[in-house]
Amino acid sequence: MYVSWNRASLMHEPDPAFGSDSSPAGGGPISVRRYADDDFDDLVARWHETNLVSYRYVDEHQRHTLEEARGFFRDHLLPSCSVWVAEASGSLLGMLALETPWIRQLAVFPESQRRGVGSALLRKARECSPVELRLFTFQRNEKARAFYEKHGFTIVALGVSPAPELEPDVEYRWRTACKHWSK
Fold first, then answer.
1. How far apart are CA 51 and CA 31, in angstroms?
2. Measuring CA to CA, how many Å separate 149 from each of 16, 18, 76, 103, 175?
3. What is the number of alpha carbons within 13 Å of residue 96 lying toward its C-beta?
4. Eight-state DSSP code of residue 38
5. Strand 11-12, strand 102-108: pairing
6. Between vectors from CA 72 to CA 66 and to CA 73, what angle results, nearest 5°?
7. Is the pTM of the predicted complex or chain greater than 0.90?
8. Which of 37, 163, 177, 180 has its CA 20 to 30 A from that of 62?
């Protein structure tokens, strides 16, 4: 099995500049579009590579093969999630897998981090689920935690992801601010 589905959503050090859609790695403006079947090979390879780089401290992730990543993406993410890709000038920059209201995966590829990609993907998640978003990330993923907290996510619970990972994790939730108008 590639990863535990319910507890590990694999947040990848997203971008802290929520409002910025600057040109990543010298490309054009960031756009977010629906996943297309033609994206599969490149997207899964980049996602798997990002997991290996981002989670050096999770032995289970280091053992996963690209073939296992393909199987997990094909058999678990695509059937149950809306998958979105961020790109600029035809290059893939990151991806979002959303099973409303749950962000199951949000990955920003290493060379595109801190350039507005995570922010663009988070905006898409909020567009698709405007009332509430929820996610898990590892407690050690400090950059992702800072990103989400900066954008209004609050901690719901601390726990441990199930076997085979058994890594301390944190559950986050974002809700639309409720405004009450008085006359």
1. 22
2. 10, 12, 28, 15, 12
3. 31
4. G
5. parallel
6. 90
7. no
8. 37
Instruction: Transcribe 132-164 into DSSP letters.
Output: EEEEEEETT-HHHHHHHHHTT-EEEEEEEPPTT
Token output for 127: 């567009």
Q: Which two tokens stand for residue 182?
A: 């008085």
Q: Which residues of 94-129 are buried (b: 16+ CB within 10 A; e: fewer)?
A: bbbbbbebbbbbbbbbeebbbbbbbbbbbbbbbeeb
- Each residue's pLDDT tens digit, 52-93: 998 888 888 888 999 999 999 999 999 999 999 999 999 999
Give me 175's structure tokens: 């809700």
Q: Which residue has the tokens 């996610």?
A: 135
Which domains, ranges and CATH numbers included, belong to the chain? Answer: 11-175 (3.40.630.30)
AA letter at 166: L
11 vs 38: CA distance, rounded Å: 24
The answer to whether 104 and 9 are in contact (CB under 8 A) is yes
Cα dist from 82 to 10, 42, 73, whole Å:
16, 18, 12
